[in-house]
Amino acid sequence: MSAVQTTSPTPDDTRRRGPLAEVFFSLLRSGTFLTGLAIVLFWVACALFGEHFAPYDPLADDILNALAPPSAEHWFGTDQIGRDVFSRVIVGSRDILTVAPLATLLATVTGTALGLLTGYFRGLVDDVVSRILEAFMAIPVVIVALLAIVALGTSKTTVIVVIGLSFAPIIARTVRSAVLAERELDYVAAAQLRHESALHTMFVEILPNVIPPILVETTVRLGYAIFAVATLSFMGFGIQPPSPDWGLSISNNYGMIGGGFWWTVLFDALAIASLVIGVNLAADGVHGALND
Fold this sequence. Notes:
Layout: H1 11-17, H2 19-28, H3 31-53, H4 85-91, H5 93-121, H6 123-137, H7 141-152, H8 156-183, H9 186-193, H10 198-206, H11 211-234, H12 246-253, H13 263-291
Helix pairs in contact: 2-13, 3-5, 3-13, 5-6, 5-8, 5-11, 6-8, 7-8, 8-11, 9-10, 11-12, 11-13, 12-13
């Protein structure tokens, strides 16, 4: 009876997988990425299905049990009007995981288009657009957001647009640098010799080759977007009541810390921190896989 022989993948097998498959398998081998992904997926599951396994209605108050400490009945305690903190933390992930990804998507689409435009045409177009983008980047994101929200009014749509457009210049700068390098390669010259339009050359020829830095920048910006949404909600300009949003809950309860009611703020803050850490770990994993 002959023994069964096993062989490890050869270099030829690796090459036959293709670049996308290699990135995928690198991510599966990355403990950093898998840890970050697990954290993010946990909060996504809470956002989608949290109301089904939250022990209490996150919006229902119970004045008789206000500011109750963590216990077997209320794992994370209750807030100043008796709402269950654990239920609010679980369901509170919904708004931030709606607004932040949409804002990041808007930033990525806008920034990619601007980066392709400035990197491909260069010259006057590059100078004018780049100076405008640099002016926007010189102003802190929160200041820009506050000015825009005061002028346009507070709503989820306004927050998405403001954060998205605030982060777009940063992504545009990254894409521009990648496009400037790609523009000098032979395949771009070949497209120009075929008299392909500028739009075709930018979006069909160049764009697929600058996807890696765009992916890395997008995942990094998502972490910043989560912090921006939470900050605006804390300041009263983001998600509005009666949402159990984490930043809004911290804003409503942070005055309780002085009285020793730490649980009304701590668990929401830990939720924000864990989500941002998860996103950043996933971003590091993506960056490592694309640079292998």
